[in-house]
Amino acid sequence: MGFLPGPTDPFYEFMLPPSDETPAQKTARLKRELDAQRHSDSIDEDIKLERAEAKKERNVIKVLLLGQSESGKSTTLKNFRMRYAKADWEKERQGWRSVVQLNLVRSILTVLKVIEAEINGDVPVDSEDDELLIVNEHDDVEPMKFSDRHQLLMIRLAPLYGVEAELKRRLGAGSEPLTPSSTTLSATPWDSPDTGINIRRKPEFSVRSWKDVLHQENRDVAQGGSSSQDLDSATSTIAQCKDDMKALWGDKTIRLALRRRGLQLGDSAGFFLNDLERVASRDYVVTDDDIVRARLRTVGIQEHSLVFKQSPWDNPRSGKQTGWEWRIFDVGGCRTSRHAWLPYFENVNVIIFLSPVSVFDQRLEEDPSVNRLEDSIILWTSICSSRLLAKTQLILFLNKCDLLRRKLKRGVKVNQYLPSFGDRPNEVMTVIKYFREKFKDIQKHHSPEHRSVYIYPTTVTDTSATATTLETVRDGVLRENLAASQLI
């Protein structure tokens, strides 16, 4: 027999309304009780939502792409999205057309500026590419001989200056105005910014987020408005200049002038001059490789979500799928941006750090007094030694192996810049092995706790090889996080 409250139950007596309660008092009491019940229900709902969110977050992996500017972070992000977010990738494809066209036009204009400098016997100092136009100090600085044909090419290709301005305007329409911060530099996220540093060149054309820009581009094209007409105009002008661009790029005198000035356009991101026949056509269609190679500098934080509906270790017979979401953050690598990294270190699971192996003889764009390899090592050391990141899984991409191969083939000697390299063979695999050992030693000696680091030599512009690397990275990350969550 169940319990029935009665006169001897103190709670029963306590919950009875007053015997002399008036109708007005009863109405007030019932309202208080209803409000209290609503408040209690709201708290219960909040708790329920928090538990559901906590359960959901348990299967979220936060990934940071870190490294200095132009180390390949955005290209790596493109590879992730091309492979694991195919629907969004296809939606953005058409938007990349303007970016590729801008890359092509800027390469041609850089060549024109070299010709102009040679004809005038001087070096321009106010262009975005002025650091590429410095005559090699070991070469003869006498101006080269250019013919009337070269002068005519310059005149015929002059409309591309207007195309460049129009494409920049279009791409910039999807972003906020940029406020230069080039005088505040930090070697690591934890350093106090150095101020008063003079930057050698004007900032490169940049946007906050290429995702926003691409979506705006696609909307303009779909709506067929004035922006779409401007795009058709740019495409038409580029197509009209195609033969002249091919003549310019194929000219032996011009190639010699570029080489004498140390300008290796083929090593630059966004290089499409070898694809002029295809890219400069009116019916140009953007390929996956074009998107990966395209250069559009971003100064904001890129955040993208990848959803894996099942883990490689799900048991099909059980019918249970764990499901994983990766939130990937691509943060600006320039020293002017590194102070903004710290907020993203909280609860980060994985850091994919990119260190270009071809930059041992190069200087930072934002601070020419610093060697790029030295900067990368300083940054890697700070990441490895941080107690805040002691539990974070570290993955290292020794990137731009293709550019290293080209550089060594041109006869550049690593030991002239890195005496510690000694008399090792000046070969690609030997250099990569040397860097692998050095970076691994830094991680081993500076990590607050014992952990492994996974190192991959990469060329992230090679989509086929990178797909294999990302598959290995994905499986390894999922395995470690499954173990940490005690799901296996």
From TrEMBL:
Keywords: GTP-binding, Magnesium, Metal-binding, Nucleotide-binding, Transducer. GO terms for biological process: adenylate cyclase-modulating G protein-coupled receptor signaling pathway. Pfam families: G-alpha. GO terms for molecular function: G protein-coupled receptor binding; G-protein beta/gamma-subunit complex binding; GTP binding; GTPase activity; metal ion binding. Mg(2+) binds at T298. GTP binds at D267, S268, N399, K400, C401, D402. This is Heterotrimeric G protein alpha subunit. It comes from Gymnopilus junonius (Spectacular rustgill mushroom).
